[in-house]
Design goal:
There is one protein chain. By secondary structure, the chain is α/β, with parallel strands linked by helices. It has three domains: about 80 residues; about 60 residues; about 140 residues, 3-Layer(aba) Sandwich (Rossmann fold), CATH 3.40.50. The protein is built from eleven helices and seven strands. Strands 3-2-1-4-5-7-6 form a seven-stranded mixed sheet, with helices on both faces. Helix 5 links the parallel strand 1 and strand 2. Helix 1 packs antiparallel against helix 2, helix 2 packs antiparallel against helix 3 and helix 4 crosses helix 5.
Length: about 350
Amino acid sequence: MIRLIEALVEQRKSRQEELKTSFYELAGAIETMGLVRKKRPLVRAKLQKLHSALAAYTTAQDKEWDAYANNHSTTVFKSLQWKIEKLEAEYSNLKTLLSHFVGLENRLDRLLDSLDEKNAGQAAAGLRAVKEQLSPIQYADFEQRFRGSREQIETRLQKYLPLFAGRHEILDIGCGRGEFLELLAASGHQGLGIDLSASMLEIAAEKGLECYQADALLFLKNRAAESLDGIFSSQVIEHFQPEYLRRVISESFRVLRHGSPLLLETINPLSLFALSRIYFLDPTHQQPLHPEYMRYLLSSSGFSAVEIIFTAEPENEKLRAMAPDNPLALTFNGNVDRLNQLLFSACEYAVKGVK
């Protein structure tokens, strides 16, 4: 905004100087004309009056512009300052909450180490149960703050529903609060969800959704062969270790019926914006997953018609092109396109395969 205002001020100064130059050239031309000598003082007085009027007009414009620019800049900066203060307050609250959980977890660890489990086995088991609940609650709070509201998630996942058309029982791995399960139910599908977070599952269960606390790989291994019509997962597989992910995909192939799809959505590492703003925000992510690596994993596990589906690109973040009438536009805009492709590609992608 400051650069824009400075540029406009410079443009105004340039036009003002052009106007003054034109005025003096006009005055000189009139002086050299063959006018009657006695009328020259009158012409000179008229020119002087015109010059004074123009000077007063430009001065008034200057004051008006300066007032507008100062007021606009103050409004913008106040708005930014308010947002920064709000973010700082929210970060402080989150930091306090996380510190509390970490301290509580450390205290429980020390208590567990000091217990004689032979004499206090029941107490130790209870303490362990409390400790195991800490991390899921902590992560649930993190997701609530940074992943988005239920309405935002449902809107984002809506586009995947047509890919499960004609399928009946569909498993959602890492169902969380149950956004995709709700979409499935509304579309006439039978949705089944699993997640590790007890607090997230409580939210889903309150909506009447079928969901269980279970490990993805163990759940699939205990499922009968060819017993599901589809498997879906949104932003979960980046939390898996490579070998664990490979086994989950292999077991998914086993439990799916013929013609059924597997669809796994994750963060796109080809977008530097997505890496810096989304992926590295979550410390529980294991490693970025390249789209071509995921294509290979599904293909090598037996899936056919494997395809990569990219989400929409963050248009508001992209670098702006130069006006086409500028002589440098062709080269400049070509470089802008290449930079936008590197920096602001789609933030997520899904890999889809069919058994």
